Hints:
The protein has helices at residues 9-16, 75-91, 119-124, 132-145, 154-163, 167-178, 195-203, 205-220, 255-272, 280-312, 323-348, 354-357, 362-382, 389-398; strands spanning 29-33, 40-47, 52-59, 62-63, 67-71, 98-102, 107-111, 117-118, 224-226, 235-237, 242-244, 251-253, 401-404, 407-410. It has 412 residues and is of the alpha+beta class. Strand 6 (98-102) and strand 7 form a beta hairpin. Helix 9 packs across helix 11.
Amino acid sequence: xxxxxxxxxxxxxxxxxxxxxxxxxxxxxxxxxxxxxxxxxxxxxxxxxxxxxxxxxxxxxxxxxxxxxxxxxxxxxxxxxxxxxxxxxxxxxxxxxxxxxxxxxxxxxxxxxxxxxxxxxxxxxxxxxxxxxxxxxxxxxxxxxxxxxxxxxxxxxxxxxxxxxxxxxxxxxxxxxxxxxxxxxxxxxxxxxxxxxxxxxxxxxxxxxxxxxxxxxxxxxxxxxxxxxxxxxxxxxxxxxxxxxxxxxxxxxxxxxxxxxxxxxxxxxxxxxxxxxxxxxxxxxxxxxxxxxxxxxxxxxxxxxxxxxxxxxxxxxxxxxxxxxxxxxxxxxxxxxxxxxxxxxxxxxxxxxxxxxxxxxxxxxxxxxxxxxxxxxxxxxxxxxxxxxxxxxxxxxxxxxxxxxxxxxxxx
Length: 412
């Protein structure tokens, strides 16, 4: 293709015909733009007669959610592709296959996952995914362990760090998660009825201290190659399969950020349940299932991570008795803190989640927002004192009410 420009539907379809060994010249193709994200164009090209389809994803030179006033580097398309290829080497069954790419056009062609559901939507429809915790725990353990100094030659790892410098997308995270919710910012987005919560966030100095410490980790720690934006909207699932997509935020950072991100999104769905279900017993069952998924996710990660460490650790000093326990204990603390930050930003920051925003009842929506903020703050404030995943579960369970301006908001 020629010099970079955003693809039209017809151009995406024409490009798909050039992919070797996929569509022939006589294929009757259909194409539609399906991207509902914030940063990219995403096309699905289908040959219905031969039951074939692919995804063509193109990075835009700006943040789609804001517009051309927020420019972004197209290099993130390369970063996403290389992250997908690396993840495929480590756990091929848990990521989509990459078929082709065009560097100059910031295009990546990959496997269509239309037979899967976006996990966020599936959870809102009441579906359970019994293998998810096992799958995502293995994904996290493999991708984080094998891209760290524990498993890599330190010099080779530093070369990898250079390849995944991702300043534009890191800045989005640094601002939207670790800064904007705690100050007046045009990027913040919240309803007037929780303005008191937003004000409280800006005035909470103890919270600011913990966020500053977590932000420092995000800015300075290059522990492993992160997905960088691991949430239930970037995961496709079936009852038997899990596929992690969209690692364009990939960079070398603190491991707990990825683990905390997925836990945060499960907890956001947890607090949203009363807004989607009327039956009290069903709410309790769904919430218990979500908390069990949180617990099992961490346990699956820890078990796999320790197994990989014991089998494949390359750093001789990391075999020192006691070091592994200290390392994993700190990962849990980081995970809890980052989970809290991710929850907070999804309530008062620029980009929310439909789990809560699409609750039709105003009171139920506000209740979910306030409970999410209460849990998020407690996770951040408590992160350095967490000793087990059960400590996190207890914080969530014990956040039963919040009192604001004389009104008691009861949470189930």
